[in-house]
Structures are given as structure tokens and as C-alpha cells.
Specification:
Elements lengths: L2 H13 L16 H11 L3 H17 L3 H9 L6 H14 L3 H10 L5 H17 L3 H14 L6 H11 L3 H15 L2 H12 L12 H10 L1 H15 L5 H12 L13 H12 L6 H4 L3 H11 L2 H17 L6 H12 L7 H18 L6 H10 L5 E7 L5 H9 L12 E5 L4 E6 L2 E5 L2 H7 L12 E6 L2 H6 L1 E5 L7 H10 L5 E7 L6 H13 L5 E6 L7 H16 L7 E3 L7 H14 L5 H87 L14 H58 L11 H14 L15 H13 L6 H14 L3 H11 L1 H8 L1 H8 L1 H30 L2 H23 L1
Parallel strand pairs: 1-6, 1-7, 2-5, 7-8, 8-9
Antiparallel strand pairs: 2-6, 3-4, 3-5
Helix pairs in contact: 2-3, 3-4, 4-5, 5-6, 5-7, 6-7, 7-8, 8-9, 9-10, 10-11, 10-12, 11-13, 12-13, 14-17, 15-18, 17-18, 18-19, 18-38, 20-29, 20-38, 21-29, 29-30, 29-34, 29-36, 29-37, 29-38, 30-31, 32-33
Length: 917
Amino acid sequence: MTVEVKVKVKEQFIKKQFYKSYLNENENNIHPIAVLADLYNEQNDDMDLSSIRFAQGEVYFENKDFESAVFKWEKVGNQLSDWAKKNIADSYYEIGAFETAEKLYKEVKTDSSTLTSEIFLHLFSLYIDVSKYEEADRIIKEAVKYNPDYPNVTRIARKFYEKHHDWTSAVALASDESIRTEDLKWFIVLREYIVNGVTKEMAPSYFVQPLLSLAKVDLEHFELMVEALWNSYREQSVYVNWLQTFNDMLFQINVETGVKWNRFPSIYSMTYEELVEGDYFVAQLEEMMPSFLTNWLRITDIKGAVLATTATLAWDRLFPGRIDYQIVADAEMAFEQLLKTPDCFEIGKELFENILQWSALNEIEVGDRFEWWTSKLTQFENTTMLVAGTSGNGKSSFVNSLLGEKMMGSSTTMPVLFEQNSDSNIIVFSKEGNTQLAEFADFYDLTTVENNLLKGDELVYYKLPNSFLEKHRLSIIDTPGIDGNQVNTKALLQSVKLADRLVYVLNATAPYTENERSLLVKIHKELPTLPIHFILNKMDSIYSKEEIDRVRAEIQAKVNQDFPSAKVLPYSSIYNNQDQFKDLELFIEDNVLSTEANSKQTEKLLLAIRKLINFLLEKRVEKEDELRANVEWNEVLDDKLNGLLHSLKDKEMEHLNTIKSSYRELKDELKYDLKLSIPGLLKECKELIKEDSDFGTILETLNEEMNLRIGEYVRENTLPKLNEALQNWIKDSGVLLEGTQGYLSEMSDSLNDYIGNEYLNLECDFKVLDDWRRDADRMTSMTQLDDMNILLNSSPSQFILKSSGILLGLLPQNKSKLVAQYQKYVDNVNYDDVTSELSMKFFLQFEMFEKTLPRDLSMFLHAPFEQIHELVDETRVAISNYNQTLEDMKSNPSIYFDPITFFTVRLRQLEFLTLRK
């Protein structure tokens, strides 16, 4: 049987059209059942009958007679029995008996790959119908794994995965089929998945094999898929891992020389710029970068070669030995052959702005001076000429003669930049910020040596209307005279970086000294492209023209040994003739006015970037030192505050004890006075007992009188004494509290001096003394005392005495004796209990007042304590925060230093570009 016939028979089994093999063309009008019945009746062989029965079952199935179809297929016993079993399952499937159908499908055991695949697909359809999606997923995966070439099996699987958003399975199918078939359509499907973002969570290594396969099939589509993966991973945490994986893989692809990559050059260029912007750590990139740069050199075009070569060289300079030596050598050779480089100034300006933005995000103040530098470096319309000279050479006079008015004193304390402007405006820049000067007089005073109280980092920006500056589109920087003062030399070396030209003023009587030469050679080494020219000043001291020419020629030859292009102009600042000024203008036009503003601006910008990067590196050390100093400062403050708290607490307890003790002392004195006075006062009441007294009520009368006399004594003696004692006590306490306030004021001043501002105001609450005075007045005003039972407490002696008085009082001859008895009784009574009761009642409110003294003392010191505690809390929070910041800086130095490292890489790359240009 031929392959074609086999395929046709399989299609008949699949479509249940095997019965058509028994039909002849001349039997088209006869029903297949009749034809098959005739054949069945004619056959005696079992095998042939099974085939006919199989065919009959197909006809019954086609006509929806599933019961008859099953009956026929159950009788099939030849090689068609497996297909018959599968068809029986199909019949049950058609009538909705899914469990029976599933069981029958699974019972079929066959070596036929076609039948096996068909069973897989029918089971898949069954599971879909009964919503068993997990089983459907499992069976379709088995079908694909068993025979992925079976018609429609991968198409069905893909459709199922996509419908159920099973992107993991869908991607796996597309990836496997891409590798297996190398059919471009599957690679396109895989790329669509990548573009749609369903592969972001997959490891980059997953796509190595599909990419290697695609590179063999179609390089254009290879680029497209790589670009899709690159974009999908760009914002993911595995981005660097993708770059490492892809570049390692790219080494496995032998790219023919001359292959033109359409997308890779721009992708690599853009990625490199992203990587070195400062958002990554060096540790993340140092392993990946060599392979990245190597491949960039391999695939780059002519346009991208500039960045690829300079990036490679810059990385190698900062991380030597990481990139293969031969690759670096190739980059150097390619760099030498470059004909065109990009606009270095714009690249540098972007780098400078990136650094400033990073500094701002990290709360690092770079100062107004740096920002001002940026604005100056982007102005191409003016040439900046810096004038320098040794003190006494007439430099300031020369500057004044240029400006046409006396702007500078004989000695300058700081660099001054003069620039043409319609209005005058004077700004002083320093590390601390900028200051606006209102008047020229302020400027003049500030820039004279007599008033030099400066630090050496100041610079004055003086905008003024000036015809000379406007005519020549010139800016002039005047610098402090060089006299061995390191501050002045530092000011010159800093300011010269702003200049397009340096003009050095020499003294004709002692020109070009060794010190001047050493300084200028040093500047030339640092700024080799900065043109240097000379003004031979004080020529008025030489009277002969021949001598002037000789001196000029001699100096010209001398300076040209060090600076071959330098020019020398004889000049006298004190002469104000037109010819000399014309010579000066011509000298400036020929030698000073810049014809290469852009390139010079780029050089100055590079210097500014270097200075800024160095500043940031120094700032880190400065920041750590500052944090440590802040910790130490706050710890000292914390110790001082804690000492003050302990001292104040001791004073509070000491004052409380002293005040309470003195209060108790005055109270005890008055109690003792009552104890001595009251009994005698009460005994004197015996004089009220006379013979004519009513002895029946005598005790009541005496009791009443005794209470009256006690009240009178308290009002006229005790209360005045008590008031006076309390006032003295309050006065003495006030003196004590004033001493505490004085102590707190001293401590407050001391702490404020340490803090640097009037933070503490430790004022006590002297309202306490007013409250005490008010309470004293209230307590010593008329006090109402309740009557006491002095003689009416029903003691046995009183009862006998009272009874006797009633009886004997009726007998006149016994009254004198009775008077004597009563008087004796009053005189002999023990009044201690009465005195104690009186003291207890009288001093009750004073006892209550004493109990409030601790609270009053606490209120007196409440505000100082509260302020001190608040400052202690703030100080300890500050210490904790500073220590935490220090710890973070120490444990994660890469957070700060790595961005600076990448800024340095970009600077090195820019330096290569500038060098080439």
C-alpha cells in the first residue's frame, strides 16, 4: 500500500467514511446500507464481515442511529477493532453520555499514532464540553508532546491557551515550536507575546535557545525579537540580567563581516546612556559591562562608532583590566580613524545638568556659584579675558584704564568679573551663597585690602554699562595681585578656569620673574589650550624708544621659550593718549577676542564638571564629618541638659524641704503659743464664779465665756502673729525661688550660647507667690471657731459638782463654800485636750495648705522642666537620626559613590570626544 493510499485510508477512518471504499460509481443511487447488506450476505469470512460491520456502523453513525452503530462496531474483531472502540466512544459522546465516552476513550490501546492523536483530541473536546479545563489542559499538552506534527494539534493548543490566558503555556508552545520547526510564523507569534507584555516575568535565559534558532533563520526578525525583549525587560528588576544573558548569547552567533544591523546600534547607544545616568550600582554592571561594550563595538555602525569606542575606552580607564586587552586596542584604533564627533558641548552641558539634578535630589547644595558658572559657560557672545599680575605691577591701573574709570583700588582682594549691561548690578558669590551690593562704595570697600576679612572663595559679578566692553563684546576678570599669599594664588587658579584668554601684567622694571614664570607654567600645564599674553606695564619708567623696543624684544623672546604663541604689548597705565589705546585695542582684537568660543566653552565646561565631581566626593567626606560633629555636639548638649535636669530636680527637693520646714516651724511656734496661753486664759474664768451666781447653770455660763475668750485671743493675738509670720515666710521663700530663677537664667544663657540662638527661656512661674499671699490673707482673716464643750463633757467630777451646786445653792449659808469648790475645779482642770482640739480645728486649713506646697513648687518649675525635656527629646531624636544616617552611609556607600562613578565614566568619554575633536 502506497503512502498516498495509507493517508487516504487514515482520513476515511478519521471522518468515518471507510464505507465509501465499498461503493462503486454505478451504485450512487443505491443507499450504502443496501450495498453493505448485499456484501455482508455474500461474505463468509469473519475478517471481511468485521470490515463490513465497521462500515455499516459508520453509515448508522452518519444517520444519527447511534445504537445501531454501536451494535455493529461491537461486532468488529479484526485490525479495525481499535478504531471501532474509539467510534463507540464517539457515539456515547454524541448522545451526551460523557462519562461512558471518557471511559471508553481511555480503554483504547493502540500503536497507531493517528488513532492516539484522535483520541487525545476527542478527549480534549469532551473535557471542554464538561468544563473540565484542567483535564483539557493536561490532555492537549499530551497530544502536542506525543505528536506535534499532527494536523491542527498545535493550533488547537494555542487557541485554548490564549482563550484561557494561560500565557505560560502559550509562550512555551510558541518557543518549543519555534526551536523545533524553525518556522518563521512561530517566531512571529512568540514576538507578539513579548510585545504584549506576557513574558515580563520569565527569566531572560528562557529565550536564549529561541533567539539562537531565529538567528539562523532570519537576522532581521532576530533583531525585532531582541528589541521586543529589550523593551519588555527595561523597567523590570531583571533588566541587567537580560543584558548579561543576551550579550553572553550574542558571542555564540558568528555575525558575518559587513552585516548591517538596523536596530542594534541605537538600542546599545540608548541603553548605555541609561546605564551610566546614575540609577544603577557599579556592582550591578561591572560583570556585564565588558561583554556589553565588546558586542557594541561588534555591531555598531559608523554613526554609533564614536560613542561605542569612547565608552569602551572610558570604562577601561576607570575599571582597568576588566575588558579584554585586544578589544581595548581595537577601540583605540577605531577611535583614531573616526572623522566626525558629536557636539561635545551639548553632551557636556547635559552631563553637568544631570549632576546638578542628582545633587538636588540628594539634598546636596552645590552653591549659587556653580549655577552661575553654568550660565556663564553657555554664553558664546562674549570673550572672557582674565587679567593677572604680581602685586605692584599696576594690574588694577591697567584694568581701570580699559574700563575708562577707576573701578578697582590699588590692590584687589577677590576676583571681579566685569560684564556689559544696560544697568548696574553687583553680586558677591561665595560658598555660603550670594549677596547683593547696593552701591559702588560697598563694592569698593569690599574689594580693597584694608577691608579684607574674606575666606578666599568669593567672586564678584559686576554688570555695568561700559562702551569698551560692549564694543569688543568682552568680559574682564580682575584677580588679586600675586604676592605669595596662598589665598590670592588660589583665587587666580580658580578664576582662570572661566577665562578664554589670560593676560598677565608684567612690571617693565622687573619683568617675568622666576615666580611669575613658575605660576604661569603651572597654569599652562593645567590648561594647556588657554592662550597667554603679556602687558609690559610701567613703560613710563623707560624714556628711550630704543630702550622700550629692546626691553619688549627681550621679554618677547623670554616668554616665547615657555609660551611660543604669546604676544607682549608695552603699555603705561598713567598715559592716556589715543595712540596707546588704539595699540591696546588692536592687541586685544588680534590676540584676545576668541574665534573658537564653542571649543573653549567645552574645555571650561569639562573643568567645571571635574570640579563639581571632586566637590561631590569631598562633600561626602564633609557630610560624614558634619554628621559625626552633629552627633558629638548633640551628645554634649544632651549631657548638659541631663545635668541641668538633675540639678534642677535636686533644687526642687531642697527648696521644698526648706520651705516646708520653715512653714512647719512657724506653725509649730503658734501651736506652742496656744498651748501656753489657752489654759491660763481659761483658768482666769474662775473669777466669774460668785456667790450670787446661778449654780444650776454655772458650768454652761463658764463654757460660753471660755469660748468667747478663746475666740477673742485668736483674733487679737494668734491671727496677727500668724499673718506676719506667713508674710515673712513668703518673703523668705521668694528670695529662695529668685535664686533658682537666677540659676536658670544663667544656665539658659549658657545653653543658648552653645545652641547658637535664643532657644531656651527658662522662666519660672512666680504666680505661686501671689497665690500664697492670697491664701495667707484668706486664712488669717476672721476665722469662725465652733464652740467647744470645755466644761460640759459629762465627766464624773463635773456631774458631782453640778449636783452639789443644785442642792447647796438652795442653802445660803453654803454658797461661799460652793464658790470655793467651783473656783478650785476651774483652776485644776487639765486643758490639754481643749488646746489640742483648738489647734486641730484652727490649723486644719493650714495643714491643707501645707499639703499643696509640693504641687506649688512643681508648678513653679513646670515650664523650665517642660522646655528642658522637650529639648532633650529633640536632641536624642537628632542623635538617633544622625547616627542612622551615618550607619546608612557606611553600610551603603554605593548609593552615593556609584552615581558619581558613572558621572566620571561619562566625563572620561566626553574627554575622549573632546580630544578627538
